[in-house]
Specification:
Blueprint: E1 2-4, E2 7-9, H1 11-53, H2 62-78, E3 81-86, E4 98-104, E5 111-117, H3 122-138, E6 143-149, H4 161-170, E7 176-182, E8 189-193, E9 195-196, E10 199-200, H5 203-215, E11 220-221, H6 224-232, H7 241-246, E12 251-257, H8 265-282, E13 294-297, E14 306-309, H9 310-330, H10 332-343, H11 348-373, H12 379-382, H13 384-404, H14 415-433, H15 441-456, H16 460-483, H17 487-495, H18 499-525, H19 532-551, E15 564-573, E16 578-584, E17 590-596, E18 599-606, E19 609-613, E20 621-630, E21 633-642, E22 648-654, E23 661-664, E24 668-670, E25 676-679, E26 689-696, E27 702-710, E28 717-719, E29 723-736
Parallel strand pairs: 5-6, 5-7, 7-12, 8-11, 15-29
Antiparallel strand pairs: 1-2, 3-4, 4-6, 8-12, 9-10, 13-14, 15-16, 16-19, 17-18, 17-28, 20-21, 21-26, 22-25, 22-27, 23-26, 24-25, 27-29
Length: about 725
């Protein structure tokens, strides 16, 4: 018996009382945590909406400046130390933007970097501030650096300015790793980029991140094929993130995709914040090798990600090769006899290789001709699966016809030649792939093993089964390439006449040779000329190739839901007093109408790249200058004005003979000839734009100005349905100074 507050309770009653207290405590903790999560989400979404309210936040704009001020205000409120770095101090290039570098001290001097762009990064910027809110409470293991980056998006050779500056600040610190997060709106899913251009995040970083992402049930897009594609440098445009990879800094990027709903915002935000906090805890000094070749697999949602490092993979790889070698030795006599017979027909292999390669080249030429006739060179980008299907079905149809109707050609009729040639070709493909990426060779090794069993087994039905197994890796690779899609790989397989088609031939020839083996199997063992199945298969492939060929010229990717992009460039040359309208679109534009300066003009049958001359009744750019001479030098004050604020201004000082540019209020670079100097001006400069320069007085100099506006107020208007026009105005002028 136990006495509590004067009452007598039995052991059972005490147990019930404890259970009740635990339940109430759990409910209290649940509601407390829920309130905290809601408060975090509410705070994050509030600041996110504030950033969206500023507008586009383009580089150097007033909206971007307000956004940076808001971030600085939040950091001040959190008592986090930060620095604001202007980006107009670059020796080459120039930007009116800035970056904010915030630091949170940790237990270690290792740096964990979190970066987000300001332009097109409203949600990711708010997310980083929410992470900072948690980090100052949790006492991080690493020293945390937060970068809020301006000047990330641009077409100059010096972009991204923000990432360049941030990486230069990090470079002296060798013990650092970074996560780059970019999302303008709250995303539906995250695309994870672990590398590109032959550079891949090291094994320890990817493993820690993906384990945390999967355990946190973060919706994401990341596959094992991404590692192979990044190692081969075929991932396509990486944007600003590529700058981090080029410097060798371990970095992984999160790119927001789609638009998520607000119903589950609290859960998704808190989970993602938890992932970023877990990285600080999971990454340690124990393993900091730069190993970038490894295999990643996550076949089931509830399954923990599987990682295979390079060394275990090589051991497994060599083990499989050894097993195959032993299997061949156990059947040495039959293998030796078959190789002896096959060697008599060795010259047929290069002949067949050349024929299949020729078919692939013809397929590429046929695709090119279809695109040329439609005046639509990039049509395959809008329907890559259709064009790849046509090319491979075209090759298959040609090959099947050749196999069935090659009686007049002195080719071997024994099936053993084709089965052994298929195995040797598959192993040759494996040897070609190994130097590129040994883990990628696992797919061709699978095919080689299946074809080896195809050769050993005598049962016809089992041969068909193993042939299907051999084709599975190639089917899976094509499926991944097309669903992702990896456009550089599609371009390589579809449009590359020599290298791409050589690879296609090496990959597909083993399957074609195995089919030839099955075709001659009946005539060799069952005394019938051909299997009726092969005739039916050839007929189906021929019909499919013809139908696809007839349908491709009628393919049109644009409709109401997918409008045709058309870029209209209004080019005004004030030197020659000319005005041209240039039209640029992926496909033919056709008939259209344009409203130019209030007047309606009709244009017929415009091609995808057209140029028409129109009246020049305006001068949107004005330049004035004042000279002050002192000794042998001149100081020139230049003012550029006009209608509206240009997005970009390019300036060049030039002369007929070498001159000396002593100084300028903007960064500049002299050409090696000494007759030209480029003046660097950042995007969205203040307008009217004023600058000063000092030159030698003995040589007359001239100023060339090119100003560009995006969607100017009085832009030409195209009247047509199902289009997505983009208008820019480019004005060129030249003045004597």
């Amino acid at each position: 018996m136990i006495i509590i507050t004067g009452s007598f309770l039995t052991t059972w009653e005490l147990s019930s009382w404890i259970k009740l207290m635990i339940q109430r405590l759990a409910m209290l903790l649940f509601f407390t945590c829920s309130a905290a999560v809601y408060a975090d989400t509410d705070r994050l979404l509030g600041f996110y909406n504030e950033l969206l309210g500023y507008g586009a936040r383009n580089e150097g704009s007033a909206e971007e400046q307000m956004a940076f001020d808001a971030v600085a205000g939040r950091l001040d409120a959190l008592d986090i130390h930060y620095k604001r770095h202007r980006l107009d101090t670059q020796r080459r290039g120039h930007s009116y933007s800035e970056i904010i570098e915030a630091t949170i001290p940790g237990a270690s001097d290792e740096r964990y970097i979190l970066a987000s762009p300001m332009e097109q990064g409203a949600f990711s910027t708010a997310l980083l501030l929410e992470v900072a809110e948690n980090l100052i409470i949790s006492s991080p293991r690493h020293s945390i650096t937060l970068f809020f980056l301006g000047g990330e998006r641009g077409n100059t050779a010096f972009h991204p300015y923000g990432s360049r500056y941030a990486i230069d600040a990090v470079q002296p610190d060798s013990e650092a790793f970074a996560i780059y997060i970019a999302a303008e709106t709250m995303p539906k899913t995250w695309e994870i980029k672990i590398g590109g251009n032959g550079v891949v995040a090291p094994y320890w970083f990817t493993k820690a991140l993906m384990n945390s992402v999967v355990s946190g049930s973060i919706p994401h897009r990341f596959e094992g094929a991404d590692i192979h594609v990044a190692n081969l440098g075929l991932q396509g445009d990486m944007g600003s993130f590529s700058r981090w990879l080029e410097e060798g800094l371990p970095a992984i990027a999160f790119q927001g995709r789609g638009s998520g709903g607000k119903d589950d915002a609290a859960i998704s935000i808190s989970r993602f914040v938890r992932v970023l906090l877990d990285i600080d805890r999971l990454v340690t000094r124990n393993d900091r090798s730069q190993e970038s070749i490894y295999i990643y697999a996550h076949p089931f949602e509830r399954m923990k990600p599987l990682f295979i490092r390079e060394l275990p993979f090589v051991i497994i790889f060599l083990g499989i090769i050894s097993i195959l070698a032993v299997s061949i030795l156990l059947q040495y006599r039959s293998v030796y006899l078959n190789f002896k017979r096959v060697s008599k027909h060795w010259w047929n292999w290069p002949l067949l290789f050349f024929l299949v390669f020729l078919y692939f080249v013809l397929g590429t030429l046929l695709v090119e001709e279809i695109l040329r006739l439609k005046d639509f060179p990039s049509l395959w980008i809008y329907s890559p699966g259709t064009f790849l299907f046509f090319k491979f079905i075209f090759i298959g149809a040609f090959s099947m016809n050749f196999i069935l109707f090659s009686h007049g050609i002195p080719l071997p009729r024994t099936p053993h030649f084709y089965s052994y040639a298929a195995v040797m070709t598959s192993y040759l493909l494996t040897l070609v792939i190994i130097p590129l990426d040994i883990t990628l060779a696992s797919y061709s090794l699978w095919a080689s093993c299946a074809l080896s069993l195809f050769t050993i087994i005598r049962n016809f039905k089992f041969k068909i089964f193993f042939l299907f197994l051999a084709a599975i890796p190639y089917i899976l690779i094509l499926a991944v390439v097309l669903t992702r899609p990896y456009m550089p790989i599609v371009d390589f397989l579809l449009m590359d006449r020599i290298t791409g088609n050589l690879f296609n031939t090496l990959a597909l020839l083993p399957i074609i040779l195995a089919l030839a083996c099955l075709n001659f199997w009946h005539s060799h063992y069952e005394e019938i000329s051909h299997n009726a199945v092969f005739y039916a298969l050839t007929l189906i492939m021929n019909a499919t190739a013809v139908i696809t060929l007839a349908w491709l010229p009628r393919l049109s990717p644009f409709d109401e839901n997918h409008p045709q992009p058309i870029e209209i460039r209004d080019k005004i040359d004030l030197v020659n007093h000319e005005r041209w309208l240039e039209f640029d679109s992926p496909g033919p534009i056709g008939d259209t109408e344009l409203i130019i300066d209030g007047s309606l003009y009709s244009f017929e049958n415009l091609s995808r790249q057209s140029r028409v001359r129109t009246l020049m009744n305006q001068s949107p750019l004005e330049v004035s200058s004042e000279n002050q001479e002192f000794l042998d030098n001149r100081t020139i004050n230049i003012a550029i004005a006009g209608k509206g604020r240009p997005q970009h201004i390019s300036l060049r000082i030039h002369a007929d003979s070498p001159f000396t540019l002593h100084s300028a209020s903007q960064p500049f670079e002299m050409a090696s000839s000494g007759q030209e100097a480029d003046i660097f001006v950042g995007d969205n400069p203040p307008f009217p734009f004023n600058f000063q320069l000092t030159v030698s007085n003995e040589t007359p100099v001239f100023l060339s100005v090119t100003a560009a506006w995006r969607n100017p107020e009085d832009a030409p208007i195209m009247k047509r349905r199902n289009i997505r026009p983009s208008v820019s105005r480019i004005v060129y002028a030249e003045y004597a100074l």
